[in-house]
């Protein structure tokens, strides 16, 4: 499971139209283990993107259950998707809502990508809302530069359980 953090960064930027400097506040999404790591990673990412001084003004947990970022697009869209789940104890139906973030060109494109991404689900779902998100970029824990897992780490499926336990 991902731990996602929305990080707000404030800095001065040159306005492309007027050429004047203006203060901007931008939001980025970071996949990190903790708040501390999220702060460290956002500083590292921003140092390579921003010239001059910047300040991380806010870090908060984000509640996205799914991120569709494998396709092209120029805007992040936040979507509320709901489906009916059956409570195993009581046998009653209950409505479950999830937040999904999708990279798309427009709302129609976001809708189509969500439908395609959720196509493997065996239950019916409803897309209740799709809105533009203030998020400018998503920095995955294993990004393009970190795609390979280090050689000294193994997937859990390859680790053998030791039958000798210490009591």
Task: Give descriptors for this structure.
single chain, 167 residues, alpha/beta, Ubiquitin-like (UB roll), 2 domains, four-stranded mixed β-sheet, 2 helices, 16% helix, globular
Question: What can be said about this structure in brief?
Answer:
By secondary structure, this protein is of the alpha/beta class. Helices cover 16% and strands 43% of the residues.
Please characterize this protein's 3D structure.
The chain has two domains: 62 residues, Ubiquitin-like (UB roll) (Roll), CATH 3.10.20; 70 residues, no CATH class. With 167 residues, it is α/β, with parallel strands linked by helices. It is built from two helices and eight strands, in the order E-E-H-E-E-E-E-H-E-E. The mean pLDDT is 85. The protein is globular and about 60 Å long. The two termini are 31 Å apart.
């Amino acid at each position: 499971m991902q731990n996602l953090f929305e990080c707000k960064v404030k800095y001065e930027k040159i306005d492309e139209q007027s050429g004047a400097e203006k203060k901007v506040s931008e939001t980025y999404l970071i996949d990190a283990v903790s708040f501390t790591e999220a702060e460290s990673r956002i500083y590292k990412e921003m140092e390579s993107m921003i010239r001059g001084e910047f300040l991380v003004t806010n870090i908060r947990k984000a509640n996205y259950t799914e991120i569709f970022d494998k396709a092209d697009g120029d805007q992040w869209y936040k979507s509320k998707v709901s489906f009916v789940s059956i409570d195993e104890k009581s046998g009653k139906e209950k409505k479950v809502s999830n937040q999904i973030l999708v990279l798309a060109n427009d709302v129609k494109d976001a809708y189509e990508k969500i439908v395609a991404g959720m196509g493997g689900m065996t239950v019916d779902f409803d897309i209740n809302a799709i809105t533009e998100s203030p998020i400018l970029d998503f920095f995955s824990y294993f990004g393009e530069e970190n795609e390979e897992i280090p050689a000294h780490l193994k997937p859990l499926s390859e680790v053998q359980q030791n039958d000798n336990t210490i009591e």
